[in-house]
Amino acid sequence: MEAHKSFKVECLRYEDAWKLFEEKVGRDILDSHPNIPELVETVAKECGGLPLALITFFSEDYRIDIDQLVDFWICEGFLDEYDGIAARNQGYCIVGTLLHACLLEEEEGNRVKMHDVIRDMALWIASTFENKNEKFLVLAGVGLTAAPSVGTLFLNFNNLDEVDRGFFQSMPSLRVLSLSYNHRLWKLPHAISNLVSLQNLDLSNTRLEKLKESIKCLFDLKCLNLDNTIRLHTIPPQIISNLKKLQVLRMFLCGAIEQEEQSILFGGSELLVEELLGLDHLHLLGVTIRRLKFLKNCFL
């Protein structure tokens, strides 16, 4: 547009926002059903006074943890030209660039969000790829029951209690799987071992009780997120240590207070430390330290 001066345009006050929204929707539509006025008022409030959002209709915002976002990028192969810490630093640099360009908005707690309008534009761009294999599927909170064929699958916030035995059998190319915030999910099927290409597995904020032996078959796994799995009472030996390519392991508030004897979290920290020492590529570890002995063992 050859603009030589930039300045911030404030969002509209609610009264002005509602007037604009009302003009675009039309009085005839607003009066066509008694339930419509209450619904459209809710939609108008969600737009937050942003003029462009007020004249289009889109899904709600979601606050994204920056660390997890970079994890996803690394495991999707977006940062393949970099290695280890360099890839993570480049990811943070990209987030900073997107914030500066106002394509992301900064949130509290090291999080960002994408405005509905920007998000819809991004999904539209992704859907126009000529290469039909380059597809992304986001199904957060939609109650998915059938198994899609994709490379990235977000199933968070779906209120799942368990996953059908055959669900993962047709997904050998899946690289990123997020099952986070399924607060009823308590176990994973043995068929998860079929995800031979999986690089990122997010099980955070679930009620998972035991880490399956089948997970150690995920030889390409780079990121494993077990944050806030406070019902997890069993992590068998030689599962974590078998994930030789693991770069990121998140275990904040991981594990129930009472652990089974065969769990690496049982008793002291010796077994957990032994598992971690076998991970040559691990460069990011998040763990809740319940005993100072854990730190001592780590640095011996």
TrEMBL record:
PROSITE patterns listed in its UniProt record: LRR
Domain Disease resistance R13L4/SHOC-2-like LRR: 159-289
GO molecular function: ADP binding; ATP binding
Example GO BP: defense response
Protein's UniProt keywords contain Repressor: no
Annotated Pfam families: LRR_14, WHD_DRP
Annotated keywords: Leucine-rich repeat, Nucleotide-binding, Plant defense, Repeat
Gene3D superfamilies: Helical domain of apoptotic protease-activating factors, Ribonuclease Inhibitor
Disease resistance protein winged helix domain ranges (all copies): 58-122
Origin: domain of life: Eukaryota
Name the record gives this protein: NB-ARC domain-containing protein
Organism: Citrus x changshan-huyou
